[in-house]
Each structure stands twice: as C-alpha cells, then as structure tokens.
Design goal:
It is built from eleven helices and five strands, in the order αααααααααβαββαββ. The chain is α+β, with helices and mostly antiparallel strands.
Length: about 400
C-alpha cells in the first residue's frame, strides 16, 4: 500500500531523530549567520543556546523555556534580528504550547513581558545611537512599542498553534480509545450471545435426554414384570431426579434469556407460600376467595411448588373470567403419602359437560387452552389434573402431584 506525502511527512516528524536533525540544522545556520554578521558576546551566546537547545525539545520539553529566553536575550543584545533566532523562538513557543510545559496563558504572558523588556533595551540602544527617539509619554512615543506588540502577537500565535495541535491529538487519542472500548464491548456482547446460544442448544439436547430418562424410568415400574419394591422405588427416584433436573434446566435457560438489567425476570419463582398473596390479588379485583390448608407444610422441590402455584393461578383466572363474583375456595392438602392435592372450586355455573379425565371446558372457553396448560404443568411433575362440574355444582379443578414415594 502506497503512503501519501502527508503520511510520510508525519512519520518523519514523529521519528526520534527529527528534533536532533532540525535542531542541528538551525544551530549550523546560526553559526553561519554569526560568521557573516558578528555580534557581541551576549548575542552570540543567546543565538547559539537558543538554536542548540531545540535538539532536546522532545526528550525534555521544559528546555523550550530556555530556548525562548535565550532567543529574547540574543535579540536584546543586538538590534539585528537573526533568522536563526526567529526560527528557534517560534519553535520554542510552539513546543511550550504543544507539550503544555506551562499554561498557554502563562506562556503568552511571559513572552509578552520578555518582548517588552527587549523593546525597552532597544529603546535605550537607539537613544545611545543618537537616533530620534521621543521621550516616553510624549506624542509618538507609543510607536516605540510596536516591536513588543509584534513579538507578543508572534508568541501568542506560536503558543496557540502548539496548544491546538496538542488538543487535536488528545481528541484523536480519546476517540481511538473510545472506539477500542466499543469494539471490545461489542466483542464481549457477541461472545456472551454465542455462549447463550450454545447453552440453549445444550439445554434442548440435555432436556430431551433427561425427559426420556424420566419417561422410561416411570414406565419401567409398570411394564417390567416381577419388580421388587426396592427396584420400583429406585425407578421412581430416577424419574423424580430427572424431572427435578429438567426444572432446573428450564430455570437456567430463563436466566440466560433475561436481558441485562431486567431484575424482574431473575426474581425467585413463586411457591405455595405465595398463595395467600395470590388470593389477595384475586380479591382486589372483585373476587371472593378462601384458602384452606390441611396436612403439615412440606418444602417440595422447586418444580412442584411452581407447578402447583401456576395451576392455582390459572384456575383463579378462569373463575374470574367465566364465573365473576362466584365464591372460590382453594384447598391444599399435604398428604402423608407424599401426594400434594390441590383443589380450586367455585359456585359458578359449572360446565356443560363434566369429565373425570379433565377434557371438559367451561362455557365460552372454546378448546380450553387454560385447562390444557394446567394439565401440562401437572404432567410435568408426574401428576394428573381433572376439571369439570363439582359434586355440589359449580366448577372444580383438582390436581394430584406426587412428589415422592411412601
């Protein structure tokens, strides 16, 4: 790839040898000037020091103060203005602003004060040379200070140019760093998204395998003849462990799908301990509900707790929808045989068709998608659900969720 002349110039200026080459060239030019136009000791020292100090302006930026001061002293020692002093003075002022050795305002103020001192020295020199110099504060005396004004303007321009270049490079550096951080952030997000995709794929694969284990272990207790009670219990434990693992896998997948900063989706899942709050919500919208609990409260596996809660939630929703104002009773029975029984009944109109298999739907529910969801939740933990007309009228949802073997 061919580089442009501007790019090659920037690379040459950025090279470590650049200040040494340019400083040496200015020093050589100063020597030639001093040979052609000899000056006094003060002028000679000031010119040489100002030019030679440019070689260290990058490795030791504060040397620019010496560069400018020596240039002003060399100019003050002779009325002749050497070209090397102009070059070194401009370069020194630029270096002060470029490296921000001092604040630009302080650098300009110092340069203006130095220019005024040089001007006063020259006024004194002109008077000793019998030149027509008006007395201070007389008419036309302000023109004597045109030199200090011009030098101040030059110092101001050089310092501001150096400071502008510094600001531009800092902005460019900050923009580059911000772009690098953005790229790093995008790469991190892409990596996280890829890991989440891999996790979802693994979830699908593992869930299928674990569900097959649960189904085969459950069916083996009925299809395998001559099983001992111990073997039957072992198969049931395998099935229960498999279902618990599936529930944990689903919870893990839900966390992976949660956007960052969305704490609502990562909150703990509801349990049967939250049934009272659920009934309060039902009452708050105009329903009438009662909670009845029998048996000793047992901490069930998370999947069982969540399934029972969701079944009760859906049954209350159906009651509000199809039997508004009906009295609803939620019964929870922690059976001694490790069977959780959940009943939600109301005294509403019931169903047109009752079915022990739970295939019936309430009037106006069509295919009964809410009941289908409840059945699926019951089946998920190896239970069963029936829905239909209650023995005393109304509508009854009953779920039996076995959570272990006796």
């Amino acid at each position: 790839m061919r580089t442009s002349p501007q790019q090659r110039l920037r690379e040459w200026i950025a090279a470590p040898a650049y200040p040494w080459i340019t400083g040496g060239a200015v020093t050589a030019g100063a020597v030639v000037e001093l040979i052609a136009i000899p000056g006094g000791v003060t002028t000679t020292v000031g010119v040489l020091v100002s030019a030679a100090s440019l070689m260290w302006r990058r490795s030791f930026p504060p040397v620019a103060v010496l560069t400018v001061a020596a240039g002003l002293i060399g100019f003050a020692g002779d009325v002749n203005l050497y070209v090397s002093i102009m070059v070194s003075g401009l370069a020194g002022c630029y270096a002060l602003g470029r490296n921000r050795v001092v604040h630009p305002a302080l650098a300009v103020a110092g340069g203006a004060l130095g220019a005024l001192c040089v001007n006063l020295v020259h006024i004194n020199t002109w008077s000793r040379m019998d030149l027509p110099v008006p007395a201070l504060w007389e008419k036309g005396s302000l023109s004597l200070f045109a030199e200090s004004f011009l030098l101040t303007v030059v110092v101001f321009g050089a310092v501001m140019m150096g400071d502008a270049v510094r600001s531009r490079e800092e902005t460019r550096t900050e923009r580059s760093l911000a772009q690098d951080r953005l790229i790093a952030m995008e790469r991190q997000q892409a990596a996280e998204a890829e890991r989440a995709a891999i996790a979802r794929e693994l979830h699908d694969i593992v869930s299928h395998s674990v569900s097959m284990i649960a189904v085969q272990a459950e069916s083996a207790t009925y299809t395998t003849p001559g099983l001992t009670p111990e073997a039957r219990d072992g198969f049931q434990q395998i099935a229960g462990t498999a279902r618990s693992s599936m529930a944990e896998l689903r919870r893990l997948l839900g966390v992976l799908r949660t956007p960052q900063g969305d704490t609502a989706l990562t909150a703990p899942q509801p349990t049967l301990d939250h049934l009272a709050e659920l009934l309060d919500q039902h009452r708050a919208v105009g329903g009438t509900a009662e909670l009845r609990i029998t048996g000793e409260r047992v901490a069930l596996p998370a999947a069982w707790e969540l399934s029972a809660y969701r079944i009760a939630q859906e049954a209350l929703t159906n009651a509000r929808k199809h039997a508004p104002g009906a009295r609803t009773v939620v019964e929870v029975d922690y059976g001694a045989d490790r069977l959780l029984t959940l009943r939600v009944r109301d005294d509403g109109p019931g169903t047109a068709t009752a079915s022990g298999s739970g295939s019936a739907s309430r009037p106006g529910t069509g295919t009964g998608h809410g009941l289908t969801g409840m059945r699926e939740r019951a089946a998920l933990v190896g239970g069963r659900l029936t829905a239909g007309s209650g023995p005393d009228g109304g509508f009854l949802v009953e779920a039996e969720l076995p959570w272990g073997s006796g």
